[in-house]
From TrEMBL:
Domain BLOC-2 complex member HPS3 C-terminal residues, every copy: 505-1006
Protein name: BLOC-2 complex member HPS3
Composition bias, Basic and acidic residues: 476-488
Coiled-coil ranges from the UniProt annotation: none
Signal sequence bounds: none
Annotated organism of origin: Apteryx mantelli
Region of interest: Disordered: 469-489
Ranges for domain BLOC-2 complex member HPS3 N-terminal: 3-485
Pfam families (alphabetical): HPS3_C (PF14763), HPS3_N (PF14761)
Length: 1009
């Protein structure tokens, strides 16, 4: 479907002062080349200036009449197909600018021949004509805009010439060509070819084939292998065709009464291999190091039939205007010749071709797909595609259609463009006709920057008939056809440069035009504004012809177009209402500015559409730096009260609503509570009561629910406790008040937030540090309380170990620095042991050691006992905890217990026994009774008994502790061992009387055998 609008993309027009009748023309970098009609053999060159002014630069002669002509921006050469004596020739004109400057020197040479002998030092002052002989007559040509390479279409094959730069001497570099590749395509007579970035498009009268040459491999000594790989790529297809005999893709049986042809076909991507058109690659260049070898990948095949068009006769149905349009990413680089130029990196590629009444635009870059179909009002003569428009000429009109290239290229550049942050009108948007400008007899067209070059050839009789409105309206087409067939009629011609208006000017007109649809056809309004947006986007993506001030003007218009689209999706009830959010974001408008655009003062009955509410909801729920004024905030309250009252508590928690009047907010909340009460609403009311300074109302609201329900209520709206400003966590007034009055509720709420993925562990750390006004390296007790509470509910092993190390580090720091917590801990050691298995019961021997310790070790009972409790459990990874425990010396009882606990957990029981015997022998037996069990039972007699005997002997009767421990140990050993084994473990130099009671006990229990 084509939308019709009456806009004015065409401005003034200038006449090109051609001396001879034009036959063909093309554009260069800033020049227009016009090939004269058959009577003359030459090309006139004109310079294109601002406002379409055209100045003659000169001319150069050709061998014969020009049949085809093209200019390559890369290399700045003109290539022609010329005819002489019924033979066609392919020629390239390089250094043609010297002819325009008045020089008459011309050098004619064959392609690839040595040039050093042919040129003197004055080579720069002469034009060079390179003749490229071919075994078959050339039919069509195309220059690659990226590389400057040349593609020539001949019957059953395509020939590629590579552009080369040859250095003649230090001051002279000239262009040359090398025939490097031939694509043999059976049963194809190309009507047109297009070549861009190794993509090749070729059309016959009714077939379209698009290929890509993919790099196979490189090397100087493997030409045969590469050629074989390329030629056998399509071997199954070749075999199938040979079995069937003649190729069926052009097979037609004709008679006087009917024509039989194949059905129309469209094959995309990999399916296009099924087109049954075999392609064989023949590498003809000299194999050198770095030579490129290719294989063919099919991208698209489409076949049309003569009877597809509802207009005209079968023989008139032919394809025309084949074109590959590249869209680039821009950058800057230095060329091989030392010149700085814009490096054009290909982003997207599009292919256009047309039937007389229908045009087709395909994307053939990253994805092969049909983008748009163009229906013409009458039979077309020719069309030219640009990044912004499609210009089509018919027998009576110059028509301007919009295109979708910028929309597709934007998605190639950014696949995630369609989000809540960015947006772009869809590729599937209906195309529209901006203008149908009446011309008399347009025959050919080309495009250059912001100019359309148009060749007009009209018969004199036809012009006379067009001056009769009544007759023209009755049978305009019939008369024109009849007049052209009059043999005696004289033809008139002109070559026009039609200046297209600036992008900004046309954009302004499209915006003004869209306002006529605002209250009538909302979809048309959105469509036209989308067209204006794509127009600006296309100009921004192709900045090669823009001046710096023009680019800034375009960026301003781009933001403005986003704002207009945001307004549309906010004001109108459309299915794509959610697009209001990304378009407003791209516009750069603040929320206050958007409210001013859409909200009328004092209009309380206004209906707000979904798009506006969607934008407001998302904007207010995000951590923006903008703060609404009290008036704007009150208006927002009113809007949500009328449209989505359930959202009101959440909206009030937004950082943007900091300036809201709490009394007004409370009135709205009280109204909502009667309809839909909730915990979040109650907490929001409590927050507003705090802002009002009404503590009685605050306490009344907080007493409405139990503390556990209130803690879970914060999950529904975490911003009641913390907000973000410029990426920094900011505790709210509510959180500050809870810290002073209900720290347990605050910690429980934060734990609930973490458990429900509403806050991260690091964010919680920052929250509590900021809340308690602590420095970055100081840990407040409230944060330790949070860690301890989280240990109770945590189930993830990785997080669990992190929390255990954190609390361990903090306990050790306080004990070693003799630092008291600034607030009373919320949980005691006993509380943690009872509620969390990560805190274990403290072992008896640890308690005993602490009981005989110095008074200074008892100043921090909670931190010490919590640390010991953690090490008495099996949860913490002791190896990871050792670095944190280093500040505690083993000289003190606290350090001693910690070191022994760690050695025991690591299985170093001998080290633990040695340390206890050295530091606290009173606890040795208690330790052994608790730890030396099962597999470690043998340490009683293998380690402990010998050590005690040794130490008792050294100290004599002066160590009652050792003697007492030895007796306890002997009792255990006597109970565990057989009499013979017991005798074996006794020391040989001991006093027998000392051991007799234990020997007697052992012998009575187990008789000697």
């Amino acid at each position: 479907m084509v939308q019709l609008y009456n806009l004015h993309p065409f401005g003034s027009q200038q006449v090109v002062p051609c001396k001879q009748e034009p036959a063909h023309f093309c554009c260069g970098q800033d020049e227009l080349f016009v090939a004269c009609a058959a009577a003359s053999c030459g090309v006139e060159v004109f310079a294109l200036r601002d406002q379409g002014r055209c100045e003659p630069l000169g001319s150069f002669a050709t061998l014969g009449p020009v049949l085809r002509m093209a200019h390559s921006r890369t290399g700045d050469y003109v290539v022609t197909i010329e005819e002489k004596n019924r033979a066609t020739f392919l020629r390239a004109y390089t250094n043609w600018r010297c002819m325009s400057a008045g020089s008459s020197r011309v050098c004619v040479r064959m392609v690839g021949h040595k040039m050093e002998e042919s040129y003197s030092e004055t080579l720069k002052e002469q034009m060079s004509i390179v003749e490229m002989p071919l075994s078959d007559p050339p039919l069509c040509i195309s220059c690659c805009p990226v590389s400057g390479n040349l593609l020539v279409g001949c019957k059953n094959k395509l020939v590629m010439f590579c552009l080369k730069y040859l250095v003649i001497n230090q001051n002279l570099t000239v262009l040359d060509f090398e025939r490097s590749l031939i694509l043999h395509i059976d049963n194809i007579i190309p009507a047109e070819v297009a070549f861009c970035a190794r993509h090749i498009a070729v059309t016959t009268e009714l077939d379209v084939l698009i290929l890509k040459l993919e790099l196979l491999q490189q090397g100087a000594d493997n030409t045969g292998q590469c050629a074989h790989s390329a030629s056998t790529l399509e071997e199954p297809v070749d075999r199938g065709i040979k079995d069937e005999g003649p190729s069926t893709h052009t097979l037609q049986f004709e008679s006087d009464e009917f024509v039989i042809c194949q059905k129309p076909v469209e094959l995309l991507g990999e399916e296009s291999k099924l087109c049954e058109i075999p392609i064989t690659l023949e590498s003809t260049g000299l194999a050198t190091e770095g030579t490129e070898y290719f294989q063919v990948r099919y991208l698209l095949f489409r076949r049309f039939t003569p009877d597809q068009s509802p207009f005209g006769f079968c023989e008139e149905t032919k394809l025309h205007s084949l074109q590959l349009l590249p869209v680039y990413q821009t950058g800057s680089s230095v060329t091989a010749h030392g010149e700085t130029e814009n490096k054009r990196e290909l982003l997207s590629l599009f292919c256009f071709f047309s039937l007389p009444h229908v045009g087709y635009l395909y994307s053939v870059g990253k994805l092969v797909e049909l983008i748009s179909t163009y229906q013409y009002s009458e039979k077309s003569e020719q069309a030219v595609l640009t990044p912004q428009f499609l210009h089509v000429i018919t027998s009576e009109n110059l028509q301007c259609f919009t295109v979708r290239c910028s929309a597709a290229a934007a998605r190639d550049e950014d696949p995630y463009i369609d989000t809540t942050v960015k947006a772009c009108p869809p590729v599937s948007l209906d195309v529209c006709t901006l203008r149908m400008q009446l011309f008399i007899g347009p025959r050919a067209i080309c495009h250059f920057k912001n100019h359309v070059i148009l060749l007009i050839k009209a018969d004199t009789e036809d012009i006379t008939e067009r001056r009769k409105p009544t007759r023209r309206m009755l049978s305009r087409k019939a008369d024109s056809i009849k007049s052209r067939k009059t043999p005696d009629s004289e033809s008139g011609w002109n070559l026009y440069i039609v200046n297209t208006v600036s992008t900004i000017q046309l954009y302004r007109e499209m915006v003004d035009y869209s306002r006529t649809y605002e209250n009538v056809k909302t979809e048309s309004c959105i469509h036209l504004l989308s067209e204006a947006h794509l127009l600006i986007r296309a100009a921004i993506m192709d900045p090669s012809f823009l001046k710096p001030d023009e680019k800034e003007e375009l960026l301003t218009a781009f933001r403005e177009s986003c704002a207009f689209l945001g307004d549309c999706y906010s004001r109108f009830d459309t299915k794509d209402y959610h697009l209001a959010l990304p378009y407003y974001r791209m516009s750069g408008l603040s929320m206050t500015e958007v409210l001013e655009r859409l909200v009328s003062e004092g209009d309380e009955t206004h209906k707000y559409e979904r798009g506006f509410i969607f934008y407001l909801t998302h904007s207010l729920n995000e951590d923006l730096n903008e703060e609404l004024s009290q008036e704007s905030a009150t208006k927002v309250l009113q809007i949500f009260y009328l449209t989505e009252p359930v959202q009101l508590p959440h909206i009030l928690c937004s950082p943007c609503m900091r300036n809201v009047c709490p009394l007004t907010a409370m009135k709205y909340l009280q109204k909502i509570e009667k309809i839909m009460p909730s915990v979040v609403l109650t907490l929001t009311k409590a927050s507003m009561a705090l802002k009002m300074g009404d503590l009685m109302m605050y306490e009344h609201e907080m007493d409405s629910y139990k503390e556990t329900i209130l803690a879970c209520g914060f999950i529904g709206q975490p911003k009641l406790l913390r907000q973000h400003k410029e990426g920094i966590v900011i505790p709210t007034e509510f959180a500050i008040h809870l810290k002073e009055t209900q720290p347990g509720l605050l910690v429980a709420a934060t734990v609930a937030l973490y458990e429900n993925s509403k806050i991260e562990l690091e964010e919680a750390d920052t929250f509590f540090k900021t809340l308690c006004n602590n420095s970055e390296n100081t840990i407040p007790q409230l944060l330790v309380d949070f860690w301890e509470a989280l240990l109770v509910v945590c189930s993830q092993e990785e997080v669990l170990q992190e929390l255990l190390l954190r609390v361990t580090s903090q306990y050790v720091w306080r004990i070693s620095k003799r630092q008291f917590p600034e607030t009373k801990p919320l949980k005691t050691t006993e509380d943690l042991i009872n509620s969390c298995n990560h805190f274990g019961l403290i072992f008896p021997w640890v308690t005993f050691i602490m009981s005989v310790g110095s008074p200074s070790d008892k100043d921090y009972p909670e931190d010490i006992s919590k640390l010991q409790s953690i090490l008495c459990s099996q949860s913490i990874n002791v190896t990871s905890a050792l670095p944190f425990l280093e500040p505690l010396s083993e000289d003190g009882n606290v350090g001693l217990t910690i070191h022994v606990l760690c050695s025991t957990r690591l299985g170093k029981y001998e080290d633990s026994l040695d340390l206890l015997l050295k530091k606290c022998p009173d606890a040795v037996v208690l330790y052994a009774q608790h730890e030396l069990k099962d597999d470690n039972r043998a340490m009683w007699w293998n380690k402990l008994l010998p050590e005690l005997c040794k130490r008792t002997r050294l100290t004599g009767n002066y160590s009652p502790v050792h003697i007492s421990s030895l007796k306890e140990t002997l009792s255990v050993v006597a109970m565990e061992l057989e009499l013979r084994d017991f005798l074996n473990v006794l020391p040989e130099d001991g006093t027998a009387a000392f051991f007799l009671p234990h020997l007697l006990h052992c012998s009575q229990r187990k008789p000697l055998t």
